[in-house]
Each structure stands twice: as structure tokens, then as C-alpha cells.
Amino acid sequence: MKVLATADLHLGAGITAKMRSNRFLVFHRILNIVKEERVDILLISGDFLEQDRISTAEVKEIIRDLSELEAQVFISPGNHDPYTIMSKYAEFKWSENVKVFRDPETVVLEKLPVTVTGAGFKNIYERDSLFAKSAEMFNQTLQGLSRDRDFSETSIKDYLHLANFHGEVEANSLYNPISKFDLARSKFAYVALGHIHKGELELQRAGDTYYAQTGTAEPLDLGDTGVRGVYLLDFTEDNSLRSTQYISTAKTVYINLLLNFYNLNSYQFIIEQLKLEIAEQVRIYDANINSLSEGLNSKYNFKQDFIFNIRITGTISEDFHVDEFVLLNLLAENGIAHEKLDIDLGLNFDIEKISVENSLRGVYVRRILQEMDLVDESRKKVLQEALQLGLESFGNSIW
């Protein structure tokens, strides 16, 4: 039995047209995996749609795409696509192989055999635990089946029990709080979760129940850094977990770069160091995704666009100035795609040399240094900042 879990696709979202189209591209990557790996169950753990931004035409395309799958699809709406009378889930007729959860419910698929339990958000917030209510209903369903003489000859113990929710394993969450205690005492083999964009790259366990935040398959914004993908789980005939693979699906990969310079004195050095750091971070990223699956990341090898959030700190030579416009042009010329550039450079001063100057800034430095000898470490840090800012305000003047 193969199960694929995904979450937080936010189809319809995106500040730019490219970001919006990338989300649909990743959705089709996921559908391709479902078909290629002959997945039996596709679990979509909420925030599948961006309710207020997705178009009617796009919803119809999604419905058509899902209807073409041989897999059974289960959607548990989240806080960005709650199941209301105005939602796309209520407005459109979804295909027979797609189940959109609203109230807590357990679906029994005798032919597989598997049960899938879930519930959808009906508001932006769900302060009470949908998981706890659904787990209780699931137990009642099992009890009812055990008393049903007309039920399939397949024993209930032969069923794989799955669950699908948007929520947090956090007692005080406003978004369907789920306790580890409830997870541990549930009879689910696996609980697919959505809401937290940073996926858990290893399955968690509470009692005999495996669970994980799948994470968004495509970054929603530049804060969604690192690996993004989906879970592919393979269960044996006796419902033991045979293998787990996390497959990278993202078209966009955001990576934070921090460069700290001492006495920086050229643009060329900035670009050289950026290229070295980029090569290292991409190497680390590739190593991470290759370690998460048994060859599937190499098999699919989806094309990715690396975009960097660049922060430059440290000190700069007194005779050199970084013009942000010039640096932006150099980044473009060298093919370094970036979403954010933050420059925080202070001038590098020869404190010892300035302290003996017969000048106003020399007097300033001597006074600060004298006070630093008399104070504790916390106060000393404040004085060091004051020294740097004061000298920068003097500029190149030595009067």
C-alpha cells in the first residue's frame, strides 16, 4: 500500500504571476509522482487552495486533474480554504475518487483495505481539537463494523488505518490543537498533518502512531527556506511501515546567505565570496535531499531555481564604499538570483592609531577607551557600538 502525503500547496497564491504558476507546476509534479509510483492513497492536509484568490477556471482544472488519478484522494481543508457554504469545495462537484472532509468522518475502503479519517476546518480558527473528535468517531466506526455481520470477510485488524488533518501538535494552538497523548492512544498507523510550512524531514512517533508535518511542497515566500517536498510511505500487507521517502518537489529554493567581512575593500571580493558560499550551500542542499529518499530524488531530478536572501555584515575599509545599485548590477551580471539584499557594513578604523591623534576624534576615542576599562562586559558592548557609530559620524575628518 503506497500513500503520498502533501500539504499547504496554497494553489492560487503568489505575489507574482511566476510564483503563482510555480505552485501549479509543483502540483503537477506531485500528480506525476502519484502516477509513476502507483500510489493508492493521496492525502492532502489542508490549505490546498488559496480560497480568496483561486479562479473558477483553475478549480475546474484541479478537479479534472484529480479525477484522472487511479488513487483515492482525501482532502482535509485548512484555515486558508475552510469548508464553508461559500467555499470551492461546496461550490463544485468533485470526482468520485476525491473525498473532501468537512465534519469528522471515517471512510472505509474495503477493496484496499484501508480506513481514512479526517475533518476539515469550517472557520479560520479551530480552537477545539478536530483530531480528538475524529479519533473518537473512528473508534465508534470500528466498533460498529465489528458488529456488522454483512461486513466484508476481511478482518478489521487487516485494515490500514490512516488519518489526515490540518493542525498543530501544540496544546494551545488556535489551529486544531493535537496532543501527543491523543496521537499515542489513537489506532492510526499514520497521521498526515499540514499547517506548518517547514516540514519534518523524519517521521515522528507517539506510541504506535507515526505522524509528521509534511510541509509546503513549494515555498510560499522567502521565509520558506530549505527542502520542500512530499512524503511517500510504503506499507506491507500486514500494515507495517516498509519505507518512508521525502521527495523534493519545489521549483523555487530559498537559501539564506550570510557573509561577514573584515576591512572589505572591493566589489570583486564580495562576488568571489558569494560564489563560494553559494556553491557550498547548494552542495549541502543536494546532499540533504539525496539522503531523504532511496534514489527517488535522483529519479525525478526536478529542475529548481535557487534564490538567495543575502545579508552582508562586517567592516569596510575607510577608502571603500559599497553602492547598493552597483552591487545589484554585479549580482545580475554574475547570474546570482536574489530576493533580498541587506547590507550592514561599518567602517573599519585603526583604533590604536586614532587614539594618539591630536584631534577631536582622538579625544573621543581616548575617552571611550578609558570608560571601557571601568565597566562590565554588557556596558562595554554598548560603548563599543558607540565608538563605532561616533567614528562613522566623524567620517574622514580628523579635526
TrEMBL record:
InterPro entries, A to Z: Calcineurin-like_PHP, DNA_Repair-Maintenance_Comp, Metallo-depent_PP-like
Location of the Calcineurin-like phosphoesterase domain: 1-198
Signal peptide: none
Gene Ontology molecular function: any one: hydrolase activity
Listed name of the protein: Calcineurin-like phosphoesterase domain-containing protein
Organism (species): Fastidiosipila sanguinis
